[in-house]
Amino acid sequence: MNSFLIAGGITVILWIAEDLLCTKLKNPLWGGIIPLLTLAFTIYILATGMISFNLTSFIVFLILNLFIIEGWITGRGKYTKRQKAELDKMKAHDIDS
Fold it and tell me: Where are the domains of the chain?
């Protein structure tokens, strides 16, 4: 039970960090660090046999990685929309002047 709470806490911290990196920073590579590390860690765990490679573990890790990559894509979309809204606001202000 203790390790479950620790893993859950780490997961929440990583999700928050991922959201901040994806939506606040101009360079999209910073937001891609956590998805790449997650993918590398997944490959390492399955390749070394820390967790036996079977259909269940594959599906769990696949869903985890897809969820994290989707978060990165969504975060970059939010960043792009926010930047476009700011640019539109600046253009509207320039036209009014």
Answer: 1-95
